[in-house]
Amino acid sequence: AQSVAQPEDQVNVAEGNPLTVKCTYSVSGNPYLFWYVQYPNRGLQFLLKYITGDNLVKGSYGFEAEFNKSQTSFHLKKPSALVSDSALYFCAVRGPGDTGRRALTFGSGTRLQVQP
Amino acid sequence: EADIYQTPRYLVIGTGKKITLECSQTMGHDKMYWYQQDPGMELHLIHYSYGVNSTEKGDLSSESTVSRIRTEHFPLTLESARPSHTSQYLCASGRQGTGNEQFFGPGTRLTVL
Question: Does residue A18 have a cis bond before it (omega within 30 degrees)?
Fold first, then answer.
């Protein structure tokens, strides 16, 4: 069975500082990894994904994530945080053995709070 | 912005009522999903469909039912709402293929009194 762990319930960072939101995963074989963001009273918005290729993936709103196979991690990063980045972030995984029918497995979410 | 819609956005209803939460997408996606999410908490898959007339239950047991008569439409029904059903319900869709992301609707926040 595949699983995702987001070890931090909340991350606090000052505006202009770099941010990291952590994610580790467990899956058989090569994973497909995703990051989503959820603003208050909204659905989830897709940020970026890793399928294959370059370990550093660039996504929307200046976010990027680094796939590390040896550490089974896919941490979300941004060089300079904005107050408007404050939201709930979800990491998700799907395994290669999946027929493609099933949904993603989501982490528990990390609340990012960027202080002005 | 993804073309996936949910209605109503907010619903407050009494115990015992039958309700249907609507979800539709205009992207021609074969796969559709329903998730249940308590505010600020993780998502739990309750139903999914990989095409017309095909539906399956997800990881979290739910008393709701779904149907998929048309590709673009995936409604969720509760025959008799209870306070324990109070939650946010998120609908999503995606193309065939393991590496494709899901697109989410805005959600329906349901409160059962």
Answer: no
